[in-house]
């Protein structure tokens, strides 16, 4: 497909609005799973040597080399990512429910059922939910006001 781009020139493979058309190979970007040449070069150098290098790092760690110890621990038992949190929350379909859910999260943190970081993450999700509800309510009110002005 030939279409004018945003600057008025004719460009193959673009939509009239200047975006790339589906199936366009020019603007497709890097294929999924492809890797840059530096990563490929490093892998080629390490090919077959990873076991020996790992053994040396472990030996150095056993000798007390703190850098090697940290490296081994980062690879063997990395810092935990977020975990699943079980907190019973009330219905959050309205502002009252959001307020009650915030109270439940604070209570769970206070009782030690979840960590403060987990509580903060949950509170952030609840705040995003509150904003979404607020936006929907404002849109509905605006629609009603516009409809009443037209009558």
Note the main attributes of this structure.
mainly alpha, 151 residues, two-stranded antiparallel ribbon, flat
Structural features, described:
It is built from 5 helices and 2 strands. The protein has 151 residues and is mainly alpha-helical. Among the domains are: 37-76, no CATH class; 95-150. The protein is flat and about 80 Å long. It starts with a strand and ends with a helix. The model has no long low-confidence stretch (mean pLDDT 84).
What's this, in brief?
The chain is mostly helical and 151 residues long. It contains five helices and two strands, in the order ββααααα.
What is the number of helical segments per DSSP (H or I, 4+ residues)? Answer: 5
Give the strand tally: 2
Q: What is the approximate shape?
A: flat
Q: Biggest β-sheet, characterized? A: 2 strands, antiparallel
Contiguous uncertain segments of 5+ residues: none
Radius of gyration: 28 Å
Identify the quaternary structure here.
single chain
Give the H and E element order. Answer: EEHHHHH
Structural class of the secondary elements?
mainly alpha
Percent helix, as a range, is 55-70%
